Automatic annotation (TrEMBL):
Biological-process GO terms, alphabetical: L-leucine biosynthetic process
Name of this chain's protein: 4-hydroxy-2-oxovalerate aldolase
Marked site (Transition state stabilizer) residue numbers: 16
PROSITE patterns linked to this entry: PYR_CT
Keywords assigned: Aromatic hydrocarbons catabolism, Lyase, Manganese, Metal-binding
Organism, as annotated: Ideonella dechloratans
Gene name as annotated: dmpG
Matches recorded under InterPro entries: 2-IPM_HCS-like, 4OH_2_O-val_aldolase, Aldolase_TIM, DmpG_comm, DRE_TIM_HOA, PYR_CT
Length: 346
């Protein structure tokens, strides 16, 4: 595969997807020092918000240590070259959140929906374009949709005004061929000037390989997180992806050694647990489950005595998607009742 000379934009997820394994408890100092490290390493775009995007602070998704306003207004003034993005899930984030983000200097807004529900993004994409923001549509759990279905959804987002559309492997379930067929189909269907992005999770240890497959299929924006800090087994590890791009001649503008140092010296020390492929995060990828369900399933394991792996397999079987966090506890409860009934009958 010859990708020599291809220019891509790497988009950092450490301070947004990385909020999931931190239970949204990053301090302002941690945010600021990591963002400054990423900026100095040459990362051009950095996402900052609650893990579930603007307005995510809630009983359902978890209360953060600080508000989105506090995080954004701490990070943005410190950036020398990097721009800052914010995620927004319609139904969680509102147009008022969008305006607040714009007023604080957010450059890019990413409007995220389940991969078959792009129609709910219209209001927010239209509003972001009116505000002249870099406007991205973000199709989550993309392994659940065929290439043809993704094409219709990506074209809807484009028709609302998105200047970039992402195919998002929220479950880290895809293999490189799954990425290739989806991204090639979407690339061929969108206008040439509409950018194409890929967001990977490393649950099957495919984050880097999938991201390279995405670039080969025509993606020019790739998400990654320093030391992989993100939901599940984490996002595509940025320092590894940058080193691979460097070897392949893909131009990212990110310094290989500086990004390694950010990962090693700033991000690994703040991890509450080591982000790696273990039996539970691997099960997310294997069973095709939304990566941010991991900690909810671990919590339900403690409460109901059902192993997180069993809960995750059942969530995959039921086809649960982002927004159905309340069903995790419900599923654990059902499994524990079934177990009790079997024990009683024996
Ligand atoms: C709200 C989710 O964490 C968005 C995301 O990063 C994904 O779907 O993956
Ligand atoms: Mn993610």
């Amino acid at each position: 595969m010859n990708l020599q000379g291809k220019k891509i934009t790497v988009h950092d997820m450490t301070l947004r997807d990385g909020m999931h394994p931190k239970r949204h408890q990053m301090t302002l100092e941690q945010m600021a020092s990591i963002a400054c490290g990423l900026d100095a390493a040459g990362v051009p775009l950095i996402e900052v918000t609650h893990g579930d995007g603007l307005g995510g602070s809630s009983v359902n998704y978890g209360f953060p240590a600080h508000s989105d306003e506090e995080y954004l207004s701490t990070v943005i003034p410190k950036m020398k070259q990097a721009k800052v993005s914010a995620l927004l899930l319609p139904g969680i984030g509102t147009v008022d959140h969008l305006k607040m983000a714009k007023d604080l200097g957010v450059h890019t807004i990413r409007v995220a929906t389940h991969c078959t529900e792009a129609d709910v993004s219209e209001q927010h994409i239209t509003a972001a374009r009116k505000l002249e923001m870099d406007t991205v549509g973000f199709l989550m759990m993309a392994h659940m949709a065929s290439p043809e279905k993704l094409v219709t959804q990506a074209k809807l987002m484009e028709s609302y005004g998105a200047n970039c559309v992402y195919v998002t492997d929220s479950a880290g379930h895809m293999l490189p061929d799954d990425v290739t067929v989806r991204l090639q189909a979407v690339r061929a269907a969108l206008k040439p000037e509409t950018e194409l992005g890929f967001h990977g999770h490393h649950n099957l240890a495919m984050g880097v390989a999938n991201s390279v497959a995405a670039v080969a299929a025509g993606a020019n924006r790739i998400d990654a997180a320093a030391a992989g800090l993100g939901a599940g087994a984490g996002n595509t590890p940025m320092e590894v992806f940058i080193a691979v791009c460097d070897r392949m001649g893909i131009q990212t503008g990110v310094d290989v050694f500086k990004i390694q140092d950010v990962a090693e010296d700033l991000v690994v020390p703040i991890m509450d647990h080591i982000i790696r492929v273990d039996r539970d995060s691997l099960t997310l990828g294997y069973a095709g489950v939304y990566s941010s369900f991991l900690l909810f399933a671990k919590r339900a394991e403690k409460k109901y005595g059902i192993p997180a792996r069993e809960i995750l397999v059942e969530l995959g079987r039921r086809g649960m998607v982002g927004g159905q966090e309340d069903m995790i506890e419900d599923t654990a409860l059902t499994l524990s009742k079934q177990r009790a009934a079997v024990a009683q009958a024996a």
